[in-house]
Amino acid sequence: MTSKGLTFDRVVPIFTIVFVDVLGLTVILPLLHLYAAAYGATPLQIGLVAAAFPLAQLIGVPVMGALSDRFGRKPLLLISQITTCISFLMLAAATSLEMIILSRVVDGLFGANLATAQAAMTDISDEQSRSRALGLTGAAFGLGFLFGPAISLFALEFSDSLAMPAFIAAAYSGLSILLTLFMFKETLPANKRNITKRGVLNLGTTALRMLRIPAVRLPLLLMFTQQLVFFAFESLLGLFVLSRLGLLGQGTALIFIYVGIILIYVQVRIIGRWSKRFGDARMATIAIGLLAVGLLLVALTPNQPHPLYFERRAAAELSQLAPSAVEVMVGNIGISLPDEAGRGFGGILWFLAALIPLSIGAGLIRPALNSLLVKRVPDQESGAVLGVSASFVSLADALAPLLGGLLFQSLGASAPFAAGGVLLLGLFLISWKLGAQSRPSVAASTS
After folding, report:
1. From CA 401, how far away is CA 397, in angstroms rounded?
2. Per-residue pLDDT tens for 50-71?
3. What is the pLDDT of residue 129?
4. For the stretch 92-116, what's the b/e string if a residue is b when 16 or more beta carbons lie within 10 angstroms of its beta carbon?
5. Rounded CA gap, 72 and 66, in Å?
């Protein structure tokens, strides 16, 4: 196997493409429930809008990943970006709820931008640098999530039309197409491509074939479970900090920025060093342990609002806000505002401390697991296995808000995080098997 290194001229185009793509996506994400509500959607229908994209990706991403193994990364990346741009234009021009749902389905079926970019990163990296390479795409993703929602809110300050953010997202998507056309150089040469048709157009065949590989099965199941738990945390974060700490939209946005900064630092500065020191399997184990500890600490956050909290003002602001995506998916979740008499720094400081291990674990886990997956299949199937991994993430994203919201509603604000922490402690023990199974990659053994 020839040695490959991460060079600036090859990494920067992929990093930039991912950042611009995610920027366009995150301009839209915070507003999806408002697009649906504008057409009088019921809570169930708004839930369908939220679930349409990840459910469509269950089919689209593995197929697009397998096709990129056969025809190369650049053509599939362009197809993905063009259809994403079309989906944003459809959203901007939507005149019905059905057209909104269709726009999300189109993007989900063909929008495999991130999975294809990750596959391109694996093409230009070797086993020693692969975790760092995948971490760089994660860093670009994190930067997009920092700036995208801010752009969306800025756009709405100057326009009352929900079409404006969709047009901005389409413009960013158009920019990513130009970047791919003129900056991106094909990373998968013709002699390295998988020329067989097996599983390319059959989601079930591709996923089942990957699950039949013992060394691949456990990382895929770990990927699904950790994403189910972590995305439930992301989805319910706003409700939790409101009920425990009295934080409204601006405060929640600052929390996301705090988490985003930690994620970016982890992906840029820590992943490469830890991967070399511990190996990907052990790093995945560490990440799951950190996630478990962080979630359990979050669940124990004291019920103490921040010092600037006033219950009457919070209630007045809440009455003017649209329901969150989680609320509309599980029905109207009753939230009791905290008593301002107990104000202090204890709750917010505890919560910020709990987010440190949680964010570090979140920053490590997906690059580590994806790196393991790529090492355990032939080079010609790296796109396919990353596509299946992304599909498992999409399935978890579709289920997590519903399951987490039901736990929140029926058992209390701490329940989703406590349950997730306990589940991840179990995964922490299972992941030791992952380390025990660490072996030379299929690609290495066949080169």
Report:
1. 7
2. 778 888 887 787 778 778 888 8
3. 74
4. bebeebeebbbbbbbbbbbbbbbbb
5. 10
Mean pLDDT of 129-137: 73
The candidate with the shortest Cα–Cα distance to 122, out of 68, 178, 71, is: 68
3-state secondary structure of 94: coil
The per-residue pLDDT for range 152-162, each reduced to its tens digit, is 767 766 776 77
In the DSSP assignment, the letter for residue 323 is: P
> What region does 96 belong to: left with phi over 0, alpha with psi -120 to 50, or beta?
beta
User: Which pLDDT score is estimated for 382?
Assistant: 78
**What's the burial of 277, exposed, middle or buried (CB within 10 Å: 0-12/13-18/19+)?**
exposed
* DSSP output for 110-153: H--HHHHHHHHHHHT--TTTHHHHHHHHHHHHHHHHHHHHHHHH
Alpha-carbon torsion (127, 132, 136, 141), positive or negative: positive
The residue whose two tokens read 């199941």 is 221
Torsion of CA 159, 163, 164, 168, to 10 degrees: 170
Which amino acid appears at position 206 of this protein? Answer: T
Residue 310 CB: number of other CB atoms within 10 A? Answer: 12
Tell me, what DSSP letter sits at residue 190?
G
Residues with Cβ within 8 Å of 383's Cβ and at least 6 positions away in sequence, in order, are 65, 66, 67, 68, 69, 73, 115, 116, 119, 188
Most distant CA pair in the chain, distance: 70
Residue 424, CB-side half-sphere exposure with 13 Å CA sphere? 31
Q: Within a 10 A sphere around the Cβ of 436, how many other Cβ atoms?
A: 9
CA distance 323 to 328: 7
Taking Cα atoms as reference points, which of 99, 92, 87 lies closest to residue 21? 87
CA distance 72 to 120: 9
Pairwise CA distance, residues 170 & 24, whole Å? 7
Residue pLDDT, tens place only, 294-328: 999 999 999 888 888 766 776 666 555 445 545 55
